[in-house]
């Protein structure tokens, strides 16, 4: 089945898509959520986790996502159709079938991800129990499994968004995201909220 027909089949079977922003922690998911909000996509976020030094523009999270693996009734996800929700990559597999998911999966240089995570832990007075070399191995293996899962589960349609490309060419990437979501987003506003000065951990 070609991609166009598959997208049509998803819409017919599962209805309006749930827009899912995903990736590793510190890969640019909050930035992408802010872009979607600026573009006109309604958010599923409860504001419990407020902005801080690590994410000065906010996290755009919903606490219910953290409980997906243990949650029996996931009907609230269906209510998120037509909205954007942030789900870290480890929990994508816990999203319930029966919905049409359009996934924006963030990719970022893994050394930058680790550096950003390390600084976050330092600000909290915590330390990682795993060295960077081992974490790189774990992340690479995890990302491979996630990509396979996204290909195999019929309710998922995915576009991969490179963090550095968004920083360097925000309007081009905003336009690409808008096309993936069916068009109609305010691309200029999406691009305007990308802040290069927040790109603070560079490989």
Report on this structure.
It contains eight helices and four strands; from the N terminus they run αβααββααβααα. The longest helix has 21 residues, at 132-152. It has a single domain, classed as Rossmann fold (3-Layer(aba) Sandwich), CATH 3.40.50. The model has no long low-confidence stretch (mean pLDDT 90). It has a four-stranded parallel beta sheet, sandwiched between helices. With 203 residues, it is of the alpha/beta class. It is 42% helix and 11% strand. The chain has helices at residues 3-14, 29-39, 75-78, 110-123, 132-152, 163-168, 170-180, 187-192; strands spanning 18-22, 84-86, 101-107, 156-162.
Number of strands: 4
The CATH class is Alpha Beta
**Secondary-structure class:** alpha/beta
Count helical runs.
8
Radius of gyration: 17 Å
By CATH, the superfamily comes out as P-loop containing nucleotide triphosphate hydrolases
> What is the string of helix and strand elements?
HEHHEEHHEHHH
Assign the CATH topology.
Answer: Rossmann fold
| Global shape | globular
**SS strand fraction:** 5-15%
Strand order in the sheet with the most strands? 2-1-3-4
Largest sheet: 4 strands, parallel
How do you describe this structure in short?
The chain has about 200 residues and is an alpha/beta fold. The chain contains eight helices and four strands. The N and C termini lie far apart (about 40 Å).
């Amino acid at each position: 089945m070609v991609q166009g027909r598959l997208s049509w089949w998803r819409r017919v079977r599962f209805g309006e898509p749930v827009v899912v922003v995903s990736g590793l922690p510190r890969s640019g998911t909050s930035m992408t959520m802010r872009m979607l909000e600026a573009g006109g996509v309604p958010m599923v976020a409860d504001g419990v986790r407020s902005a801080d030094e690590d994410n000065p523009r906010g996290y755009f999270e919903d606490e219910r996502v953290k409980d997906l693996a243990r949650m029996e009734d996931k009907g609230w996800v269906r209510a998120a159709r037509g909205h954007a929700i942030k789900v870290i990559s480890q929990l994508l597999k816990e999203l319930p079938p029966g919905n049409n998911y359009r996934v924006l999966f963030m990719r970022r240089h893994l050394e930058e991800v680790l550096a950003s995570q390390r600084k976050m832990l330092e600000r909290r007075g915590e330390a990682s129990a795993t060295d960077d070399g081992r974490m790189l191995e774990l992340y690479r293996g995890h990302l491979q499994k996630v990509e396979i899962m996204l290909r195999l589960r019929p309710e998922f349609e995915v576009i991969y968004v490179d963090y550095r490309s968004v920083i360097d060419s925000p309007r081009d990437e905003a336009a690409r995201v808008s096309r993936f979501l069916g068009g109609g987003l305010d691309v200029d506003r999406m691009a305007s909220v990308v802040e290069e000065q927040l790109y603070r951990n560079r490989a």
